Structures are given as C-alpha cells and as structure tokens.
Amino acid sequence: MSAHALEARLSAYQSRVQAALDTALPAANVVPERLHAAQRYAVLSGGKRLRPLLVYCTGESLGVPLSALDAPAAAVELIHAYSLVHDDLPAMDDDDLRRGHPTTHRAFDEATAILTGDALQVLAFSLLARDRAPEVTAAARLKMIQILADASGTAGMAGGQALDLFAVGRHIGLEELEAMHRLKTGALIRASVLLAAVCAPELTPAEWAALDGYAQDIGLAFQIQDDILDVEGSTEDLGKTSGADAARAKPTYPSVLGLANAKTRARDLQRRACDRLAVFGGRMQVLERLAAYVVDRRA
Questions:
Q1: Cα–Cα dist 207/283, whole Å
Q2: What's this model's pTM, rounded to 2 decimal places?
Q3: pLDDT in tens, 193-250
Q4: Which domains can be identified in the chain, with CATH numbers?
C-alpha cells in the first residue's frame, strides 16, 4: 500500500468516526446545555483518532462491514476522550492545553469537566448496547462491552493511571514502567483491535493471538513515542505542553532507558508487532503501516 493510499484511507476513517461521534453526542442546545456543550468540545475538537483507526483497519482487513464497526470505533474514542478530560484535571496532571485548545476544565470549569468525563464514559457503553448493526450478534456485542469495560477499569486504563500517579518522583525500572503503560495506554489500544476482531466469527485462535500480540506491542510503542515527543517535540506541534513529564518528575522511557535506547525499544516493538501478523499472509498490510505511523509520528 502506498503512502498516498494509506493517507486517503485513514482520512476517510477519521471522517467516518467524526460523523458517528457527532451523531452519538447530545446536541449542545439540549438540557443540560453546558454539559452537552462540554462533551462535544472534549470529543469533536480534533485528535489523531488512532483507536478508531485501529478498529476500522482491523475490521476491514478481516472482511467486517464498516457499518458494524462504527459503534465500537466511536465507543473506544469516547472512553479515550473521557480519560483525557479527567487526566487533565488539577488533581491529576493539571494540564492547560489539549489538542491545541484549552483543556475542558479550563474552557468550562472543573465540576463540568468531571461530569463530562462521567457522561462520556457511560455513553460509550450505551452506544455499544444500543447498536443494531445486523452483522454483529448479541454474543459479539456483549463481548465488546466486556472488552471495553476491562480495558477501562482497574485492570486497564484507570489502574494504569493510578500507578502513574504513584510513580511520580520515584525511580522505577523498565519492568515496572512497562507494566504501568500496558495498562494506562496499551489496554485501550489493545481493546481497539480486539473490538474489531470480535466481529469476525471465523477468526482462528492463532489469528486472535496474533492480533492481540500486535496490539500489545504497538500500545507500548505508542507510549514510548509519546515520551520521546515530550522531550523532542514542541508545544505547538504536540498541541499540549512539551516537557511536562520532566517538570512533574514522572518516570518515562527516556528517563529510564535514555533517549537513544527508548527509540530502539520503540522500533523493536514495531518490528515484532508486524512479525506477529505473518499468520495472515499479507492481508494486514494496513496494520503494518499503522505500526510504522505509531513510531514515526511527530505529534
């Protein structure tokens, strides 16, 4: 697949999930107006949409109709958006910028931001439960809800955030750092791939395991690149404050491994992720390109 073809496909998927999110979110003029406006602000103001892209790219490579992927793609992005709203709060990371705009608690207020995250979280599960795509069985729908719930809770994203907060100011080793980020960042990326895999009933156990391993590897690679960009990137390019990790004394891959070794680790994970897809015999080229994007991106 050429770079131009990949860019066109990803752009189409980004537009598709944007439309799905716009439809799923309550209108800003519906009571309570301020809360609904804050939800739309938090979700619709940009972003890479990596998690929905993984849903669409995985599903399409497995022959799943796009109409069956809209609900899980939107749901995982709603969970991601809720996590960002809460992570940015003064009690957490205390950030002022997100995606080049004031964070939700700055644009509105802290109480509204808390409620925004709460509402986005439950909307994600409501969306999965209410979707009626005929290609998705009731059992598959229930499995998707379970996957997303597990990835969001203490065995996933919330647990990883708790470990991240506890790690501030401490010196930790690579094993502890990776365990933390497999939960905080990796769990939702893994869920994105598996949400699509659930919609492919003919998938073999070996193929499921390959996709699971791929997703875990790129989840870590994504976090490593995030840590690298916090060192090398600019606030303007990132859309958030650069150097924030060091300012907060947060353990990162560059601080634990050194910058050069962190870059090597990200590349190693990218290669291993792609190697896992060999079982599909070349059908997952778009996922291989996404793995490269994860470590090549500059924002």
A1: 12
A2: 0.95
A3: 999 999 999 999 999 999 999 999 999 999 999 999 989 988 877 777 777 787 788 8
A4: 3-296 (1.10.600.10)
Residues 32-69 have pLDDT tens digits of 999 999 999 999 998 899 999 999 999 999 999 999 99
